[in-house]
Design a protein that fits this description.
By secondary structure, this protein is α+β, with helices and mostly antiparallel strands. It folds into two domains: 138 residues; 91 residues, Homeodomain-like (Arc Repressor Mutant, subunit A). 38% of the residues lie in helices and 17% in strands. A six-stranded antiparallel β-sheet has the order 1-2-7-4-5-8. It has a two-stranded antiparallel ribbon with strand order 3-6. Helix 4 packs across helix 6. The longest helix is centred in the middle third of the chain and has 18 residues. 35% of the residues are buried. The mean pLDDT is 91. GO terms for molecular function: DNA-binding transcription factor activity; sequence-specific DNA binding. This is Transcriptional regulator, AraC family. Keywords: DNA-binding, Plasmid, Transcription, Transcription regulation. It comes from Sinorhizobium fredii (strain HH103).
Length: 258
């Protein structure tokens, strides 16, 4: 298994079970990792690889955010995580995303609210065992949960993703035969964010990929991503990423499904 700053393990993703991505990160030096908003919730195990078996494990549960935050890294510190599809957080952990909006739970705080996480914190031989344990945990919780992700919320999220975040919630509601108020309420409960915030995150990530992967100019990327103009895109980048689109830092673009 390749260890690095941030590595996704695509063969372990299972959208049907709510697993959008499984990822692993191990730091070899003192550093800072910038986390960009993606509108998702993650279940994470923090560990140290200074000795084997791995015994110093800290559970972390993160909620949806609308802005970036920096994580300080120390040599030998690692993280393994499962990023859940929007709407599946309550099915897997029995919590509504609204309970964690803009923040997260670390250590005892995570265990107090989600006692089932304690089973993840027993010693492990290596990182691969931690990955396997975390994936099995999510699959087990999915199979045992009676909670069903509302079809309407899934359809609304898919429509917003398909439009690159450009559709208005009123138009999405009309497409699915419900009033705007109902669409807002259903989406807000499922993901812990307003439709506008969720759409802005989708738009931000689309613009990032257009600039980094497709090498579009700032003006063309702003137009293609649906921003009012280049200045509008620059303001969103500063708010969500803390950087200018004209000077993209080395950022990791996570997998985001519809």
């Amino acid at each position: 298994m390749t260890l690095g700053r941030y590595t996704e393990l695509p063969h372990l993703a299972d959208l049907n079970a709510g697993i959008e991505a499984v990822w692993l990160s191990v730091s070899s030096r003192e550093d800072t990792y910038r986390v960009l908003p993606d509108g998702r919730c993650d279940i994470i195990l923090k560990f140290t690889i200074k000795r084997r078996p791995i015994s110093e494990l800290t559970p972390i549960v993160t909620g949806p955010t609308t802005g970036f935050y920096d994580v300080p890294l120390e040599p030998g510190t690692g993280f393994v995580g499962v990023r859940l599809r929007p709407g599946y957080f309550q099915k897997i952990l029995g919590l509504e995303p609204l309970q964690l909006r803009g923040g997260g739970l670390v250590g005892d705080a995570a265990l107090d609210l989600c006692p089932g996480l304690k089973a993840l914190c027993t010693p492990a031989l290596d990182e691969e065992e931690l990955v396997d344990r975390l994936v099995r945990f999510v699959h087990k919780r999915y199979a045992e949960s009676d909670f069903e992700v509302a079809l309407l919320s899934r359809n609304i999220m898919s429509a917003l993703h398909a439009s690159g975040g450009r559709l208005r919630i009123a138009d999405v509601a009309s497409m699915h035969g419900v009033c705007e108020r109902t669409a807002r309420r259903v989406l807000h409960r499922a993901i812990g964010l307003s439709p506008k915030a969720f759409a802005s995150i989708i738009q931000f990530h689309r613009a990032l990929r257009l600039l980094r992967d497709h090498r579009l100019s700032l003006a063309d990327a702003a137009l293609e991503a649906g921003f009012a103009d280049q200045s509008h895109m620059c303001r969103v980048f500063q708010r969500m990423g803390g950087f200018s689109p004209a000077r993209l830092p080395e950022v990791t673009l996570v997998t985001i499904s519809d």
